[in-house]
Amino acid sequence: MPYLLYLLVFLLPFNIRKVIYEFSGEYGTIFFYATDLILLLLLLLNISKIKDFILENRRENIYLGVFVIALFLSVFISSQFLISSYDFLQLILYVGMAIILSQIIKNKKQIFENILIIILGTSLFESLLAFLQFSRQHSFGLWFLGETKFGPLITGVAKISTSYGPLVRPYGTFLHPNILAAFLILGLFSAIYFRLKISQSLLEPKSYEAQLRKILIKKICLNIFLGISIFFLLMGLILTFSRGAWMSFALSVVGLSIYLILFNKSYLKIAVALLVLLSASSVLIYSITRPFVDSRLKVFPGDSSITLRSTYNNLGFYLIKTHPFLGVGIGNQTLYSTENNIYKIFNLNQFWQLEPVHNLYLLIGAEIGLIGLLAFVIFIFKTGWLLSHEPNLEKIIVLVMLDSFLIFGLFDHFFWTINQGKLMLWLVIGLMIGFEFKSTRILPPQAFI
Fold first, then answer.
1. Cβ proximity of 225 and 198 under 8 Å
2. Strand positions, DSSP E, 149-238
3. Which sign does the torsion angle of CA 155, 160, 165, 171 carry?
4. Helix, strand or coil, per DSSP, at residue 321
5. Residue partners of 403: CB distance under 8 A and separation at least 6
6. What mean pLDDT is predicted for residues 244-262?
7. Which of 169, 172, 181, 194 shows the greatest Cβ crowding within 10 Å of its Cβ?
8. Which DSSP symbol is given to 111?
9. Side-chain half-sphere of 65: how many Cα atoms within 13 Å?
10. Mind giving me the DSSP string for 40-56?
């Protein structure tokens, strides 16, 4: 049933939702998303695939099971049972989607590539929209796609300080620029995957004898298109002004290049060419956006973004220390901290400061306890470790996608609290599980022709 998966991936960037019940702000509201309908259909039509996954008796499944049990138990100690129940059921949908995706994909490269094509296409749209939003300093009124209404005079909008005064950061059709940045990272690695694949076939001398001239021209044109796509996606990523995204993407690209060079010397020229493309694009974009970017590159001790994140992290440690086993309840951290004046203990007295802990791992520990957190982390790393064995190009790209998200998770919460963030994370986890199954070692260049 790949077509439902394709539709789900296509709808991922569009925050189309309906309020069902509002208790307190964004993190205390029950929504019904367009993607929820697709997830429900996907689950109902593929129950047998979840059963097959369970019967495979993989050791890693135990940790996933413990994680789910911790989620379930945390609901019953939550002070807001309805909100926690909603968050639990929604996360079960994402876990179910990841399992179904893993069973459908199982080393099927065509389905994987179709998913990346959809991500690449929608991320290019989001990058263009982000550029136009930043240029206009206002939303475009695309409410039917879930675009957030924002402008320079609207309070609570993400802004940067520049020599020209405060400027609004672009949102795309996401709830926050940081979430847009995470999606653009997916788009960039999708483009990088296809560029690596095509570059390999073009570098193989035999391909010039074996293939028709038209096919070669098509591949060269496609490679040029992908290079241009990488430039514009990188432009969009830089314009989100998300330092966490910049860092996670840069580290993942460096890791990808080192891995490719060390693993197979036939990738040396391609990896160097990729680094040159990304470096040259970054320098050119920086020269254009320098008046705006410089303020985000300067980090100083009193930076409110850094001090607030440190404070939220301390709050997370406090909640884990006081509720180590089952946490305060899934989806309940902000509500619990508000009701029990925990925010005030950390001098977070303004309404806009009543936010989740800005660290994925501390937030998981605070909401479902240390056992659930450890189960989640062990499941991710054990599955990722198995994925790194007998690697092929698909596995490597999935790993760097996941690595970038895990690094990004050190600085933000949306992979746990926001629908689009959760969907992105579990989509990549589903790809990881699917490609974890036994497959051939990374192929020689001619295999990509």
1. no
2. 159-162, 165-168
3. negative
4. helix
5. 248, 251, 252, 255
6. 91
7. 172
8. H
9. 10
10. HHHHHHTHHHHHHHHHT
The first and second tokens of residue 167, run together, are: 């400027």
CB atoms within 10 A of CB 169: 24
Residue with tokens 């790949």: 2
Secondary-structure percent of the chain, ordered helix, strand, coil, rounded to 5: 70, 5, 25
Integer CA distances (angstroms), 171 to 16, 88, 159, 428, in order: 14, 27, 11, 22
Residue with tokens 């998303």: 33
| C-alpha to C-alpha distances, 232 to 18, 136, 166, 235, nearest whole angstrom | 32, 18, 24, 5
CA–CA gap between residue 252 and residue 243 (Å, rounded): 14
The contacts of residue 112 (CB under 8 Å, 6+ apart) are 105, 394, 431, 434, 435
CA 218 to CA 224: how far, in whole Å?
A: 10
Q: How many H helices and E strands in the chain?
A: 18, 4
pLDDT at 244 over 80: yes
CA distance 8 to 105: 15
Helices 177-203 and 109-136 cross at an angle (nearest 10°) of 130
pLDDT band at residue 185 under the 50/70/90 scheme: very high
Q: Which amino acid is at 239?
A: L
C-alpha dihedral, 230 to 236 to 239 to 245, nearest 10°: -70
Q: Which two tokens stand for residue 116?
A: 């990346």
Q: Which two tokens stand for residue 26?
A: 């964004």
Give the mean pLDDT of 347-370: 94
Q: Are 38 and 4 in contact (CB under 8 A)?
A: yes
Which residue would you say has higher pLDDT here, 124 or 391?
Answer: 124
Q: Which residues contact 444 (CB under 8 A, 6 or more apart)?
A: 266
Report field, pTM of the whole predicted structure over 0.90: yes
